[in-house]
Design a protein that fits this description.
The protein has 283 residues and is α+β, with helices and mostly antiparallel strands. It has 2 domains: 170 residues, Archaeosine Trna-guanine Transglycosylase, Chain: A, domain 4 (Roll); 97 residues, no CATH class. It is built from 7 helices and 10 strands. The strands form 3 sheets. The protein has a 5-stranded mixed barrel, surrounded by 4 helices. A two-stranded antiparallel ribbon has the order 1-2. Helix 3 runs parallel beside helix 7, helix 4 crosses helix 5 and helix 5 packs parallel to helix 7. The protein is globular. The N and C termini lie far apart (66 Å). The N terminus is likely disordered.
Length: 283
């Protein structure tokens, strides 16, 4: 018989979420709600979150997770059994870290307001990897692509203190850019021109591929039944992140974090333009 996790189950039942994920070990159902309004209102969703130690991932970028720890194998099972096949990724190296009982795996102390990337699961693979002098280790590989951003509204489970639910789960709100200025198109064109001129985007191939990816990501995360204006605004937002991905390498964690948290496409493009001398060493 299915045993409900008292604390988390009660919280979710009070929230009244409907439809959702299956817990990996005892197959209890965790319910979630994803509600959107035509005027770009709040969209609430419940997702597991993987803490990134070294990288700041941006929307449109691919993220590959090779998972071995029990807690993250559990997270992978959670995602694979969910209808939405979404998970969150959040840079956590700038967060305080806790070690439960002084000996367990390190867990970051996330908090409401933190911003991360919503990843759409694209592919997965499970295998047992040989290890020297020991039994093969189970590994699950998840491959996702950043399709949007989220801001943590509430921590539903912090990833420790419950062996049956060893990973982080949050209630999150979609984070979208606000309306942009008319100057945005000129900024985007200028940055795209510089990409091509410096061979960062040979013959515009990167930008063409990005536009195709953005169409796919918008359809997967937003569906096809939202207002056309909303969809177009999301595409502009994702295009600005694609440009940021091309201009700023993984080593620019501070700049990437600032860009990720911004809610103005225009401000993001302005910052990218100002970052060119630092990122490339000329201009």
């Amino acid at each position: 018989m299915c045993l409900y996790f008292s604390r988390l189950s009660i919280v979710l039942l009070i929230l009244g979420h409907a439809d959702g994920f299956l817990l990996p070990r005892d197959h209890c159902r965790i319910h979630f709600r994803a509600a959107a309004t035509a005027n770009r209102g709040d969209e609430s969703l419940i997702i597991p979150v993987f803490p990134l130690r070294k990288l700041v991932r941006l929307p449109t970028e691919r993220l590959t997770l090779n998972l071995y720890e029990d807690r993250y194998l559990g997270l992978a099972e959670f995602v694979l059994k969910s209808d939405s096949r979404l998970f969150g990724a959040l840079y956590s190296s700038d967060k305080p870290q806790v070690v439960p009982k002084g000996m367990d795996n390190i867990v970051p102390m996330l908090q409401p307001g933190d911003v991360g990337v919503i990843c759409v699961l694209e592919d997965s693979e499970e295998a047992h990897i040989p290890t020297q002098g020991a039994a093969p280790r189970r590994r699950i590989r998840l491959v996702g692509t950043g399709a949007g951003r989220f801001r943590i509204k509430k921590i539903l489970h912090n990833g420790y203190g419950d062996d049956s639910l060893p990973f982080i789960i949050v209630e999150a709100l979609r984070l979208n850019d606000k309306n942009c200025s008319l100057h945005e198109s000129d900024l985007e064109e200028e940055l795209c021109t510089k990409l091509i001129q410096t061979s960062r985007d040979k013959e515009g191939g990167f930008l063409r591929e990005s536009d195709e990816k953005i169409e796919s990501l918008t359809a997967k995360l937003d569906g096809k039944d939202l207002a056309e204006q909303w969809s177009e605004q999301n595409k502009k937002e994702l295009r600005s992140f694609a440009i940021a991905s091309a201009l700023l390498s993984d080593g620019f964690s501070t700049e990437r974090l600032e860009i990720l948290r911004m809610q103005s496409t225009t401000d993001r493009l302005n910052l990218l333009e100002a970052s060119l001398p630092k990122a490339w060493g000329f201009w």
